[in-house]
Amino acid sequence: MVDMTSSAPAAETAPPRKASLPYLGKAGDFALAMIVPGLLLLLWYVATTQRWTRLIPTPAETAEYMVDFAFGGIYDDAFSATLHIHLLASMSRVYGGFLLAAAVALPLGLLIGRIPLARKTLDPFFQLMRPIPVTAWLPLSMILFGLGAKSAFSLVFLGAFYPILLNTIFGVKNVDPKLFEAASMLGCRGNAQFFRVVLPAALPSIFTGLRLGLGLAWFVIVVGEMTGVPQGLGAVIMDGRTLSRTELVICGMIVIGIVGYLSDRIVMMIGNHLLRWSPTHHG
Amino acid sequence: MAETDTLSAPLPIIDIKNVSKTFWLGEQKIEALSGANLQIRKGEFICLIGASGCGKSTLLRIMAGFEQPTSGEALMWGKPITEPGPSRGMVFQDYALFPWLTVRNNIAFGPKSQGRSTGEVKEICDRFIEMVGLQKFANAYPHQLSGGMRQRVAIARVLANDAELVLMDEPFGALDAMTRERLQDELLDIWERTKLTVVFVTHAIEEAIFLADRVVVMSPGPGRIDSDNHLTLPRPRDVASPEFNEIRRDLSGRLHSHHAKKAA
């Protein structure tokens, strides 16, 4: 019998590494992670300062513009010091659409996964609708919800809906049947099993769905905000395009990247805490 | 723990009366169990042994209430077993612990389902965590434990639920030899202290002889009970003794005779 507890908490903070790779600590990990972005930045710098292209601003110009976009005081144009307004507008749509998608997809997924009648009625419909890309809904959502925020919101909803629904169904359907037997011989039968067995057992899948859903919500927001909304990071990117202000486009892209990344990390941290019991669920 | 019968002829805790079970595998009908009769008295340690397909697991699952007999009757204290329940605890070969619960909460699952108070649940958990020697691991999750420890939790989980009959389906089959021997000792120790009734399925003859009061030999095609052997060897049993080996040879002969018959 091996003493496992001493190694187990360590396994949670530091995933097993290949023995051949010397471990340099958190700073080393950071340095490794920075190699590719650093090279890309270098390429960008060289390409723009050597005039390989005249259409893209240099990193320094972009950085300067980013400061102006965030705090103003440099160019003082229509976009100066407006970052927070656009960011807030996009975030409210992303999280609003995502939460609404979760609120609908979770119960629906549990229902379809658990009740055969619901599965037979609803599953074919969703399977049929699923291959339609979210972007293909754009014209229709503009007709249904008009030009503006509602349309963006509905696209985010659709984008987040399917990953959450499908992963919830998968999780609920794939509970180890032994666990139901174990629960019933311990005196937990029928509907009581739903909260004490089905839900916790499906949690890893549900979480994967939520994470994918939120990622897609950030993905879809740019398309959603192309529909003539005045504010939002997608709107900034579209405006940048029509005004030929490439630095604005790049700034919008960088902000979406960073915010999307941070939002995913937060979800991951919550997931790692809730799923600390699961050996396969650590990111 | 149980309502003991005070009559002169005590009721058996388990009475299997002419039980048959057939499954359909597509078009093919499979007789998992055919006309099995078995009476188990309170406090007995019974091993069911036989080759795969002899119906030993099916019989166990019928006692647990996971399966219903196709014909015949399975009774506990004279009443038909219709569904799984806390009085009959199952220990599975692959543990079937709830991975999202700590050792303590796995053990608490049954008492909580019975609606016990928080104080009672804590007291029960403490008692059985100690009984299986997992005090240091009370707050660990199953994936952090070794196979032997997991099976200890599974046993404690069943005992904490006041099960009077413990059904074990090849519980030590996936463990290494040393862990297996240690758990066998511990199981016997718990059995002697708690006066439980144990039905233990195994395919290892030695394990059966080491543990059981009665070794029930089953044979396949169709699954049936072949012989019921009362062992009177004193405990603790020495696996190297001539008596032990004599029983092993005898049971081994019974187990293999129908293989020969089938082959012929």
Task: Describe the structure in your own words.
The complex is a heterodimer of chains A (283) and B (264). With 283 residues, chain A is mainly alpha-helical. Helices cover 72% and strands 0% of the residues of chain A. Chain A has helices at 8-13, 25-49, 59-71, 83-114, 116-129, 138-145, 149-173, 177-185, 192-224, 233-242, 246-274. The two termini of chain A are 29 Å apart. The model of chain A is unreliable at 1-15 (pLDDT under 50). Helix content of chain B is 36%, strand content 25%. Chain B has 7 helices and 10 strands. Chain B has a 6-stranded mixed β-sheet with strand order 6-7-8-3-9-10, with helices on both faces. Chain B is globular. The N and C termini of chain B lie far apart (49 Å). Classes of the chains: A mainly alpha (283), B alpha/beta (264). Chain A binds chain B through residues 1-2, 4-5, 8, 176, 178-179, 181-189, 192, 196-197, 200-201, 203, 276-279, and chain B through 64-66, 83-86, 88-90, 92, 94, 96-102, 109-110, 113-114, 136-137, 140-146, 148-149, 157-158, 161, 179, 182.
